[in-house]
């Protein structure tokens, strides 16, 4: 009977092992860059052809190797970084497994040229498919050059899974960018078929490296991050909301100077932003974490892009609190700095009964087709009473047109499209979205109250639910009651909705109820997260809408109330409540600068 179990030959073993370490050209570049950094390089050049598929060459000026070490470097599990297992838990080098060079050589045609010092003959080794073809003495400058050609030529299954040249080139550039950000003291050059894609100066500061890799516009939008939480120390930068992206491509994490990927860190950081960002927008992050080596495991996967923390919950809390504190100081607190004056008009009619916009409930009612809210429950004041148009005195032309503009609520506030409020503040113009601003005001008050009164329907509304919605409703029944929803189960999947949160416009209670069940369906968040998502939907329903015409007093009250909120820049869903135009920007538009 023929054997069913076989021992694989050495070539097959090496090619399988290479598949774990070398998935695409970018991984080759990463491994070679890490070797160069571990060798103490000050300058590193990367030359590519056809997106790295045809050729990758990495040249460094670090400490080279003699003949014996160069030959050993192409043997599997040969390394200068560790001797015994215990060394692994104290290893500060980027490479330590002794697998990179032999894995690359197993799936390519590799040329290694190295010299320990200048003026002394160096060594050149040529390997093909993992087998050394030639080893010779050559003249070579100090350092090491590794040339990888025809990657995956002997593993066609791997070769056919490579993406297009532009896609592979993008991955390589991202890899080099990440490592360049981790080592600003090293100079990097990335060249593709003669075209320079990236160039950084050696001896740079982190600030200079950011400017070299990105641009000044990005740099100006960064917030410094620094703090400690137990043994965890974090430095770096976080992006302001305007440079948030639709993906996480500009999130860079380093642990003890090792670039790594982490959903845990990304999740904690994004949680710290809260409602500063809209749904499906992700912040720019450049975070350098330091932890004692006995608190982390870097030997999770051969590609060394993953790490395991001894106490993940504490690391999550640390990232969250450090980043949140920095954002609160640099982004939230400076939205309307104390130095700015709020030049908003006061009511002009004596005898008007004004209500304090910062006190009282938030009930919403409708009177004569107008919306009244406790958020700015001011007396009826028609726009016409505020406008001061000196009829018959204007000259024809632009001045007359502007003086008659119905959007002018007062010399301090201008209304556009019954949606946006413009006002001047020191040397800038602030444009406020009235709906988003009112959402923020209502949301903060609801969150502070931590409870809602319901308003009963005159006629209870039957609502048909799906199985998933009914399951969610029963699971969150206590929270729904706290929010103001009261319902009874009739039969099957039909419930009788008896009330909705106070202030929700007539006819919108059922939609809000279904929206909440859809938001909560399948979720496993903490109760606070469910509550915040519910209150953001309620605030949206209760807020004034785009197109609602506000009086001067209502507009002024809204702006004052917005300034008092915790996050005046965004609504609870993360959309901006305001856009700020600095005087300098306006002057540039008119070519005054």
Describe the protein's architecture and organization:
By secondary structure, the protein is an alpha+beta fold. The protein is built from 20 helices and 24 strands. The protein has an eight-stranded mixed beta sheet with strand order 5-4-3-6-2-1-7-8, covered by helices on one side. Strand 7 and strand 8 form a beta hairpin. The chain is elongated, with a radius of gyration of 32 Å. The N and C termini lie far apart (89 Å). Residues 337-342 and 347-406 have low confidence and may be disordered.
Average pLDDT, all residues:
81
* Backbone CA Rg: 32 Å
Distance between the termini: 89 Å
Question: Could you give the count of β-strands?
Answer: 24
The number of helices is 20
- Portion of residues in beta strands equals 15-25%
Taken from the alpha-carbon principal axes, the silhouette is elongated
Secondary-structure-derived class: alpha+beta
List the uncertain runs.
337-342, 347-406
